Amino acid sequence: MVPYTELSEDALRGVLESFVLREGTEYGERDVSLDQKVAQVTRQLQRREAQIVFDPETQTIDVVLVAQSGRSAAPGKDRL
After folding, report:
1. Contacts for 25-32: CB closer than 8 Å, 24+ residues apart
2. pLDDT at res. 26
3. Which of 12, 27, 30, 78 has the fewest CB atoms within 10 Å, i.e. is most exposed?
């Protein structure tokens, strides 16, 4: 787990933009802008509903939902 508060503003923005662009910004009847989606994911991080994880084996970083039990979800599972 990588605490989002430990990343610089630019690094955090880069991680979140990369994540959002992989996921897309089209959500049904209306598109959500990149800035809006980044802000939504930021709020999820602040509320501890999501977390940033780094996989040293694959050298990848991702954003995942926090499991109901309060433990972190495995990368690639329960992704936002």
Report:
1. none
2. 58
3. 30
User: Coil, helix or strand for 69?
Assistant: coil
DSSP run (H or E) holding 42: helix 34-46
Sequence letter at residue 40? Q
Q: What is the value of pTM for the model shown?
A: 0.75
CB-CB contact of 20 with 41 (8 Å): yes
Sequence-ordered list of residues with C-beta below 8 angstroms from that of 72, at least 6 positions apart, any chain: 1, 51, 53, 64, 66
**Which residues does 53 contact at the CB level (< 8 Å), separation at least 6?**
1, 2, 61, 62, 63, 64, 72, 75
Instruction: Point out which residues pair with 26 in neighbouring strands.
Output: 31
